[in-house]
Structure formats: structure tokens, C-alpha cells
Specification:
354 residues; alpha/beta; Rossmann fold; seven-stranded parallel sheet; three-stranded mixed sheet; 10 strands; globular; oxidoreductase; Epimerase_deHydtase; Short chain dehydrogenase
Length: 354
């Protein structure tokens, strides 16, 4: 994405602006000279907004912080005033939660409805870019195996997840479906959806909360020293994903759903990219655990055996041609993303230095 494609004449709003993906989107916008209305839970919490303020201090764009709450109707009114584009990135990404409805579904679904309803109340808004996920397309790797040609694409929807089974995937599916229903009921703004796979790469803030960082912490801690499961997944660098969001916002031809994924990988392959640089200092996994063993110990790892059966040993396969054709994305190598992420986690104290 080049700066000349970015319209700097009108401000844009970013929800969850202190988040992992949102931070890189805000950085790209500020560096292009855009005025960014950053919607955050508490603008006075300088610890959480410091990285955004630091970027704004040297960028040609302008940063304005606004208080907003996903669950509070109308709370985005001030932040959205005068904005031409809305990036809705705010949605919790956690696997183990006490109350899936309150911790995942309500913020994702109600938040999406509140943000999009607010967009319809502001005549300046002409496009909404929603950060969804590939898990709104499939629930388990077994679903991918059943997809036409054994690959998921943008025409498919996750029909296997529920509040009690893959609740995170369920929350993303409900939120995206609601977004499309609202988009089709009006003609003021158009909706472009980004469906990324697992997001990896360095964070701009010191303490990101995305589940991606928990995976690397487990690898570094020795919890996977005996080995890791061959759990197929897609992966994309957060910096490349941010570029995809900017393309979705400013390219006229951007439309519909867009799978953004750079690599078809698994835990073992991801860990292997770290071994040349960190293998002598950290107990990283070096081999694949047999599926039967992962199935046997699943309850101790807070997983169901059905989840293991439907995911381990089964590959992630996705048709990414639509997003590639629309956005012309240049994707970083997996090793670059993983090593940059691991190094940043050591530097910020998320992984102990050794």
C-alpha cells in the first residue's frame, strides 16, 4: 500500500486502537498523514496509549484519543464524528475464558452492532473495514477437509462452532454475520471484511493480549519441550495484515470478505524457525508429538479429545487468491515474523532473557 492511495482529507476512526493489529493500522495511517480518531476504553491510561502517542509525535498525521465501550450504545458518537472510514478491530481473542457469552460473544456481537449502528448515524462514513477471522469461515480443521477441493474460501461459513464448542470462533462468526446483515440493510457505507489466520509478528505495545503471544510463551517456557502437536493453522504477519486493512479502506475495488493468510503451517514448523537463533537458550519444541498422545493428555491441557481428533494431524488449507488479487500483498517469510516476534517478547519482558 502506498501513501498516494490514502486520502488524508478526512479523519478515520479505529476501534480498539491500543490492540495488537490496530496499533499497526494506526501507525500506517499516521505515517501516511491521516488524522486518526483512536477509540479506546480509557484515554487517560497513558501506559496503554503511550506507543500510539510516540508514533504520532514523529508522524505527519494527527492522533486524537476518545473514550468508548463496545457494550455501550452510542459511546462511539464523538470518535466517529466527521470520519470517512471506520476500522472496527476491537474484539477479544482469548481461548480459555470463564464465561464465553460475557467474555467473547457479547463484546464481539454487541460491539459490532453498536459500531455499525453508529456509522449509519454519521453521514460522513462511506466505508467500514471489519477485522473478522478465518474462524468465521471454519471451526475445525476437519471442516476444511470437507470444503470443496479441501480448501476454504470466502463463500463458506463456520457452522460447527457454538457457545460450548470453539466459543471464540462462534463469537467471530456471529459478529461478522451481524455486520453483513446491517450492511445490506443500508446504502450509505460499504463493508469490507478482512478474515486473517493466526496473526504473528512483533507488537508495538509492551504487553499485548492476543492469544498469539501465549503460544510463543508456551514454546519458550518448556511446556512443549517434549514436542508439539501437528495442529495445522494459517499464519500472517501483523504488519502485512495492517497493510491489507489499509488496502481494504482505500482501494475502490476492495469488497466483500477477504482471507488474508501467508503460510500454511503448524506448531512444529513455527517452532523450527526459532531454533537457529534461540534453540541453544530456550527449551523450544523440536519434534512432533504423536496424535494419540495428544489425544490422551488433552484433558490435562484443558482441551477436549474431540478437538484433538478434529484438528491435530489435519492441515490448514485456504484459497487466498481473492485478497492477493485485490490487494497485491507482499508477505514476509514465516521465519522473519516468528523471530521478530520472539525478539520483541524478550525485549519487553514477556519472555525471560537468557
Amino acid at each position: 500500500m502506498t501513501a498516494r492511495l490514502i486520502d488524508t482529507s478526512a479523519p478515520v476512526m479505529v476501534t480498539g486502537a491500543t490492540g495488537y493489529v490496530a496499533g499497526w493500522i494506526v501507525k500506517g495511517l499516521l505515517e501516511a498523514g491521516v488524522t486518526v480518531h483512536a477509540a479506546v476504553r480509557n484515554p487517560e491510561d497513558t501506559e496503554k496509549t503511550a506507543h500510539l502517542s510516540a508514533i504520532a509525535a514523529t508522524a505527519p498525521g494527527h492522533l486524537k484519543l476518545f473514550a468508548a465501550d463496545l457494550l455501550e450504545e452510542g459511546s462511539y458518537a464523538s470518535a466517529m464524528a466527521g470520519c470517512a472510514i471506520v476500522f472496527h478491530t476491537a474484539s477479544p481473542f482469548r481461548m480459555n475464558v470463564a464465561d464465553p457469552q460475557a467474555d467473547l460473544v457479547d463484546p464481539a456481537l454487541k460491539g459490532t452492532r453498536n459500531v455499525l449502528a453508529e456509522a449509519s448515524r454519521h453521514g460522513s462514513v462511506r466505508r467500514v473495514v471489519l477485522t473478522s477471522s478465518v474462524v468465521a469461515i471454519y471451526g475445525d480443521n476437519a471442516d476444511i477437509a470437507q470444503a470443496p477441493g479441501g480448501r476454504i474460501d470466502e463463500t463458506l461459513w463456520n457452522t460447527s462452532s457454538s457457545l460450548t464448542r470453539n466459543p471464540y470462533a462462534y463469537s467471530k462468526t456471529l459478529a461478522e454475520r451481524a455486520a453483513w446483515e446491517m450492511a445490506e440493510a443500508q446504502d450509505q457505507w460499504d463493508l469490507v471484511v478482512i478474515n486473517p489466520s493466526l496473526v504473528i509478528g512483533p507488537a508495538l505495545q509492551a504487553r499485548p493480549t492476543s492469544e498469539s503471544f501465549n503460544i510463543l510463551r508456551q514454546m519458550a517456557s518448556g511446556r512443549m519441550k517434549a514436542g508439539a502437536p501437528r495442529w495445522g493453522m494459517g499464519a500472517v504477519d501483523v504488519r502485512d495484515l495492517a497493510e491489507a486493512h489499509l488496502s481494504a479502506a482505500y482501494l475502490p475495488q476492495a469488497e466483500g470478505r477477504n482471507i488474508v493468510s501467508a503460510h500454511e503451517t503448524d506448531f512444529v514448523e513455527m517452532a523450527a524457525t526459532l531454533l537457529p537463533r534461540y534453540g541453544d537458550r530456550y527449551p523450544l519444541p523440536r519434534r512432533a508429538l504423536p496424535k494419540w498422545l495428544v489425544w490422551l493428555v488433552a484433558p490435562m491441557a484443558r482441551m477436549t479429545r474431540e478437538t484433538v481428533a478434529r484438528n491435530v494431524g489435519l492441515p490448514f488449507r485456504a484459497d487466498t487468491s481473492k485478497a492477493q488479487a485485490a490487494f497485491s500483498l507482499a508477505m514476509r517469510p514465516l521465519a522473519e515474523s516468528m523471530n521478530d516476534m520472539f525478539a520483541q517478547m524478550i525485549e519487553s519482558g514477556q519472555i525471560p532473557a537468557r
